[in-house]
Amino acid sequence: MESNVLVIDDQPSILESMNVFFQQRGWMVYTSLKGLKGLAMARKLKPDLVILDIKLPDIDGLVVLEKIKKEIPQTQVIIITAYQDMENTIASIKMGAFEFIHKPIDIHEMDAALYKLSKISGKGVDVKNQQIQGKRFNYDMSYIVGKSMAMKEVFKKIALVTDSRVTVLIQGESGTGKELIAKAIHFQGIYKKQPFIVMDCSTLVDTLAESELFGYEKGAFTGADSTFVGRLEKAGDGTIFFDEIGEMPLQTQSKLLRFLHEKEFVRVGSTKVIRSNARILAATNRELDTMMSQKSFREDLFHRLSVMTIHVPPLRDRKSDIPLLADYLIKKISAQTHMQVKSFDSDMLTHIFSRYDWPGNVRQLENTLTRAVLMAKSSLLTEEDLYAALGKISEKKQKSELFKPLCEVEKDYIIKVLDAFDWHFGKTCRILGITRPTLRSKLKKYNIGSKR
Ligand SMILES: Nc1ncnc2c1ncn2[C@@H]1O[C@H](COP(=O)(O)OP(=O)(O)OP(=O)(O)O)[C@@H](O)[C@H]1O
Questions:
Q1: Residue 43: count of CB within 10 angstroms of its CB
Q2: How much is the ipTM here?
Q3: How many A from CA of 126 to the centre of ligand 1?
Q4: What domains, with CATH codes, occur in the chain?
Q5: Which of 158, 310, 324, 362 has most ligand 1 atoms within 8 Å of CB, for mutation?
Q6: What does each C-alpha distance from 388 to 175, 359, 370, 376 come to in angstroms?
Q7: DSSP 80-91
Q8: Cα separation of 415 and 431, whole Å?
Q9: 174 CB less than 6 Å from ligand 1?
Q10: Cα–Cα distance between 46 and 3 in angstroms, integer?
Q11: Ligand 1 centroid from CA 363, angstroms
Q12: How far apart are the CA of 159 and the centre of ligand 1, in A?
């Protein structure tokens, strides 16, 4: 499990720099600009480490330190301050602060403190290892998250094919990460410096498909004002990824098949044969078996493409990946939207998100989290934010809407009976088992007027 740190400082620039520093070392980072809020977060999150400014706008940093050490003794605290203040240094160390670092923060000093921490902490915070993790965590466009058995199988297959030129067919529902896998195959392999070209087959129109794929010569047809280099040629010694291959028009399928046989093609309007060494990857969310039996997908093309197949399971079949994915995606979204990394309670998120089937798979999860990050009112993603992003109301809210105070129940019931008996007081009193004066006093108490 990754370590987590809470940074409490009233300077946004410090929060930002600490955020980057710890994230690069693979830590989960939480931040607070205020002491009291930071204290509340510490109580809730019980972080491995708190970086605490001694001078805070709302509460003395030393008081925060004292409370943290008393209530969450396992949490280590590093004090930071702009003041060379011996008294505070001594006081904070006496109170159990682990280290005292002066501003501006020297990252080597912070690294040294973390190293020291790794020696004393039972959790074994391994700085070196975290630096490696940090390097890997770079929103790399080919970085795939997953620890489920199913994803481990996917990783194994990727590893088998990255350095070869084998044709791979990637199958899976929409949003499962097929394009990401294609990128991983290309960018993790020895040909990663070569181009990676995507051909979205759902946009191919029969008449233009050949030109798009193989290119055309100037004057090949009306409107061909200049020579056009097709996608295959653009791929060079790299990869061409046919996304949504199931959508490729039948005529184009034949042309692609011929290319796969011969490894050469000619531009439209030319006679010059161009040899290509491009690696072919394809993906589909369609049932190609059914399409083949319906003759809308060529069987021979299928066999050519599926030298190796990778089946990407839907998210509902690997829910154990949700916490890891959510953690990664929130960091990715925060970086992309330049929003401060939102902290969240991983158990709460897992509890809520694991109940959904995610028909749109990881893309839907990513979109949901993006909405949650953008809509969140604070730097902490709450249960309410997650439910709102899912377009649902939270259990807490549901319950509060379902259950009302007794007086409201009584008021509603009296009105219901009055309405049912056309506001006949005698009948209403008999049903409710009360006297007329009692009914009158209740009407007054609940401000129930005349017949509505
Ligand atoms: N295992 C994963 N780890 C990290 N990000 C993922 C993972 N799987 C999918 N994603 C992210 O989810 C989004 C959808 O993934 P991708 O476009 O690769 O899916 P797809 O299967 O190709 O979808 P479609 O069939 O609709 O084209 C992308 O932003 C991708 O980066």
A1: 13
A2: 0.98
A3: 31
A4: 1-138 (3.40.50.2300), 149-313 (3.40.50.300), 406-445 (1.10.10)
A5: 362
A6: 22, 18, 12, 9
A7: EESS--HHHHHH
A8: 12
A9: yes
A10: 11
A11: 6
A12: 18
Q: Which residues, in sequence order, are bridge partners of residue 28?
A: 4
Q: Give 352-404 pLDDT, tens digit per residue.
A: 899 899 999 999 999 999 888 888 877 788 888 888 888 765 565 556 656 67
Cis peptide before 104 (omega within 30 of 0): yes
Model confidence, pTM = 0.61
Q: Which residues have a Cβ under 8 Å from the Cβ of 221 and sit 6 or more positions away?
A: 268, 269
Torsion of CA 276, 279, 285, 290, to 10 degrees: 70
Quick check: 128 pLDDT over 50? no
DSSP assignments along 122-180, one per residue: TT---HHHHHHHHHH-S--TT-----SHHHHHHHHHHHHHTTS---EEEEE-TTSSHHH
Residue type, 237: D
Residue 10, token pair as written in the block: 């009233």
Q: Of 145 and 451, which is predicted with more confidence? A: 145
Q: What is the pLDDT of residues 237-246, one digit of tens each?
A: 999 999 999 9
DSSP state string for 316-328: GG-GGGHHHHHHH
Q: Give me the chain's average pLDDT, please.
A: 85
Our answer on whether the CB atom of 142 is closer than 6 Å to any ligand 1 atom is: no
How far, in Å, CA of 315 to CA of 146, rounded? 10
